[in-house]
Amino acid sequence: MARWTSATRPALTLAALALVAAGCAQPDAPTPADTVVALYRTLALGQVRGAPSGDELASIAPYVSSELHDRLAAARRLRERETARAPEEKPPYADGDLFTSLFEGPTSFQILSDTARGDERAVAVRFNYDRAQPGVAWTDVVVVRSERGRWVVADVIYGGQWDFANRGTLLTALEPATRAGS
């Protein structure tokens, strides 16, 4: 029979603390690229088109900055206001993929790189759309920054080079909704 003495207690205490620490260890925090992947998977699963609805916005809220969240909410309110004002007309931000260069949105994507850019990260994403012949491929750059201790998407720099591609950035595309006082 083992006997516990005051000499064995410190060793047992250290062993117990090591076991507890190993069991409670936090998994590695998400990287900027992980955040981008989570956002685009959530957008694809929800088939988000145009300004996200309230439920859609709630589902992507963990992955977007507070500024981007507010602008998306403003775009949704503008769309709702314009729909109520003129139900027979197509309101702004009613459809199309706001988060990539292609109106139809991607059918797949792949992270190409994650590069430091000052206090932010630039995550290059290769998108593909294979529901057209020939298919379309392009690269957008997703700007990610740390906000409240986690990585969030702050903007998207559109990289599509064809006619009618989204141009500029996502934040710029949402400015009219913000100016409209939504």
What does this structure look like?
This protein is α+β, with helices and mostly antiparallel strands and 182 residues long. It has one domain (30-179): Nuclear Transport Factor 2, Chain: A, CATH 3.10.450. The chain contains 5 helices and 4 strands, in the order ααααββββα. The chain has helices spanning 9-24, 32-46, 54-60, 66-85, 170-179; strands spanning 108-117, 120-129, 136-147, 150-157. A hairpin with a 2-residue loop joins β1 (108-117) and β2. The longest helix has 20 residues, at 66-85. The protein is globular, with a radius of gyration of 23 Å. The protein starts with 8 loop residues before the first helix and ends with a helix.
Assign an overall shape. Answer: globular
Strand content: 15-25%
Radius of gyration: 23 Å
**N-to-C terminal Cα separation, in Å?**
75 Å
User: Given the helix and strand composition, which structural class is it?
Assistant: alpha+beta
Give the helix proportion (percent range).
Answer: 25-40%
Q: Which architecture would the CATH scheme give at its second level?
A: Roll
- How many beta-strand runs? 4
CATH class: Alpha Beta
Order of helices and strands: HHHHEEEEH
Ranges where pLDDT stays below 50 over 5 or more residues in a row are 1-26
User: Please, how many domains?
Assistant: 1
- In which order are the strands of the major sheet placed? 1-2-3-4
DSSP helix count? 5
Could you report the average pLDDT, rounded to the nearest whole number? 88
Major sheet characteristics: 4 strands, antiparallel
In CATH, the topology is named: Nuclear Transport Factor 2, Chain: A
